[in-house]
């Protein structure tokens, strides 16, 4: 009996080639299963065969997006797959975006089932949940086996055109799709039953879950701006020329800490933007357009603010996970607080 052909996509780390030092790796093909593909093949069973594993560096993917998509598509198409898996990527920013992007391309161009696995708080979950089945995973590779099982469950059902149940049952990221169903009880009766359970502090499941958003209470207004020490931070990617901390153009895994002591103007000779999500031409010509050091120095000289803090913090917001962004904000806020900064200007792009 002819086996069902599977192609699997992974990054340079899970391909066993290297870490960040190999993140610029161009796409390549390995015959058969590699890395997490071993677990994928075991769970798929004898009916399926991973005929090829496509490996690509995370940086190469996100920095060459329009070039890499046709490159990878050709490599995948050459192996005539009947189903395609990518990852799982867990909470990884660049890797998750790569997995989601290539799954979208394969689904559109080859018309075969595609599945990847990501953590619910990752950028990929936000970007691709409406268009793809994303198996819900843990935030790290510690949950590898369960993540692969969930991917296989979804993939096999898609391939065999079997019905896929609710996200809670099938363990995928909710897609925001609602379907009409028939119930023996009227809506009013169901609503009262839920209310009774809620009042009794018993578990219940709403039929219309609402989105959950962070609520950040505003800070108290400054009593006197002329007594304020003002800090600068932002996610527009302004960094010293050459990007010494190698902040990623997308899905930043870090933020930079840079001195502007004695600097009254950010020039293109000394600073640039590392951001990969917008046209940085004008930002690179005059980085003050993104991080307004020049204006704040003028205000400092005029006595309208007491002082511009001599350190600024910078990262790239493009594709950066909510979890990482929250952590950066908390750490930067604490550093400002420790330096007696009592007002901050946060710029984006």
Give a verbal description of the structure.
The chain folds into two domains: 4-170, Rossmann fold; 225-347, no CATH class. By secondary structure, the chain is α/β, with parallel strands linked by helices. The longest helix is centred in the first third of the chain and has 18 residues, at 93-110. The termini are far apart. The chain has helices at 37-44, 58-63, 65-77, 93-110, 123-128, 144-159, 167-170, 187-199, 281-285, 293-301, 322-338; strands at residues 4-11, 28-31, 48-56, 83-90, 114-119, 134-137, 229-234, 238-240, 256-259, 271-273, 307-314, 343-347. The protein is 33% helix and 19% strand. InterPro entries: Various_sel_PB. Its EC number is 1.21.4.2.
Topology:
Blueprint (H helix, E strand, L loop, with lengths): L3 E8 L16 E4 L5 H8 L3 E9 L1 H6 L1 H13 L5 E8 L2 H18 L3 E6 L3 H6 L5 E4 L6 H16 L7 H4 L16 H13 L29 E6 L3 E3 L15 E4 L11 E3 L7 H5 L7 H9 L5 E8 L7 H17 L4 E5 L2
Parallel strand pairs: 1-3, 1-4, 4-5, 5-6, 7-11, 7-12
Antiparallel strand pairs: 2-3, 8-10, 9-11
Helix pairs in contact: 1-6, 3-4
